[in-house]
Amino acid sequence: MSDQLVPDGTYTIMGPGGQLSHQGNIVLLQPEGDSTQQWNVAFDSGFYTLRNVDSGMYLGNNGDPDQAAMMVNGTSQPFTWKISTGADQDPDTYLLTSAASPSGLALTTSLLRIWPPQTALLEPTAFGGAVEWTFTPVS
After folding, report:
1. Are 101 and 2 in contact (CB under 8 A)?
2. What is the pTM of this model?
3. Euclidean distance between CA atoms 91 and 134, whole angstroms
4. What stretches of 59-103 adopt beta strand conformation (E)?
5. 59 with 81: CB under 8 angstroms?
6. How far apart are CA 52 and CA 29, in angstroms?
7. Which residue from 33, 112, 119 is spatially nearest to 79, judged by alpha carbons?
8. Are 58 and 20 within 8 A, CB to CB?
9. What is the rounded CA–CA span in Å between residue 33 and residue 17?
């Protein structure tokens, strides 16, 4: 039995306040339907990579995958994620946790008050708890 929760494919990924978009950094924007908001999701050996269709950059940061960051920039190297159901057990929303982070850093919204709203890599219990993401297949 596979532990793959999200099938391989191309998705938009919605979080609080908008869709993940690669605009120099990984930010949250209102849905626009363009390729900056589309992500190729691939599953291999229990982990996922998420690669932006427009830029070819992976969701993640360069350097230590266990280093908290108030801004997620994207990286040219594959960055692995664990996708799991959240505390509410909603089958349509998921947590994204850095697969290489012993402390369980998760993708969340940044505390930085700049436009556009940034994403961050933080401990899920910090600053208000974990953020859940909705994956919608691109048709």
Report:
1. no
2. 0.93
3. 10
4. 81-85, 94-98
5. yes
6. 14
7. 119
8. no
9. 16
pLDDT tens for each residue of 32-88: 989 999 999 999 999 999 999 999 999 999 989 899 999 999 999 999 999 999 888
Structure tokens at 55: 């830029």
Which candidate, 117, 45, 112, places its Cα nearest to that of 82? 45
Percentages helix, strand, coil for the chain (3-state, rounded to 5) are 5, 40, 55
Give the chain's radius of gyration (CA, Å).
14
Q: Report how far residue 1's alpha carbon sits from residue 136's, in angstroms, rounded to the nearest whole number.
A: 23
Nearest alpha-carbon partner for 14 in 41, 35, 37, 34: 37
| Domains and their CATH numbers in the chain | 9-137 (2.80.10.50)
C-alpha neighbours within 13 Å on the C-beta side of residue 126: 16
Residue at 14: amino acid letter: M
**Quick one: 41 exposed, middle or buried, by C-beta within 10 A (0-12, 13-18, 19+)?**
buried
